[in-house]
Write a structure and sequence with these properties.
248 residues; alpha/beta; Endonuclease, Chain A; eight-stranded mixed β-sheet; 12 strands
Amino acid sequence: FTGGVGIADNWLGDARNPNEWRDTHYRIEGPSVGAFQAAFAENWLETAGETLQGEKFYPPPEPAGALSAQLVLSSQPNGSEDMELMMLAAIAAAKDHLRIGMAYFVPDEIALQQILDARKRGVAVDVIVPNSLTDVPIVRKGSRHFWGQLLEAGVRIYEFQPTMYHPKLLIVDDVWASFGSTNLDERSLRLNDEASLNVYGRDFAQTQIDLFNEDLKRSRQISLAEWQARPLTEKVTDWLASKLHTQL
């Protein structure tokens, strides 16, 4: 299993009220499971000092479905570069539509420029992020400081309204989707241990687009005029929070 769901009461409901978070989790079968097992075994060894061996932990993989999938892992000290490069390459590959659904959206300068470059190529860009119900307000504030450049370029930014929005989803055009634990922020791309599964296939991508569109119906679009009209105190605190972007 991979996605944004954690083991806590926040995930017991279905985003009907602020106590029930909005999230997506995925069950994976087939050869890709072996890559997840390797990631789990590495973390288990680091934490418990125990090596998992034998068919008890690694039953023979069986085919399941026809989708092409690739697991990308990040960990210190060098593995995080793989995740960052994957994300940047995916954004750079977009030709028609880029959809980003992120619990924590604080792109660094390179990722920010990649999104702006996508707009210059005529790519439609939609971003869903949490509203004030976020569990980490400083991340939302640090994120908002950078929205001006994106809004001016025509990026459409939406805040999910009913509750905390916790998915981590990137959809490129209508053929490729990436999901797992990775956010589009420097903590995920450079510091944390993360895992993202990339899936290539038009039919599957459409299921993720449908989910994204359903979330859009419960989100409120933020205009450039609204962003510019923030009170001075918010502008200052957003700017201060943005200075911590490497840790957000």
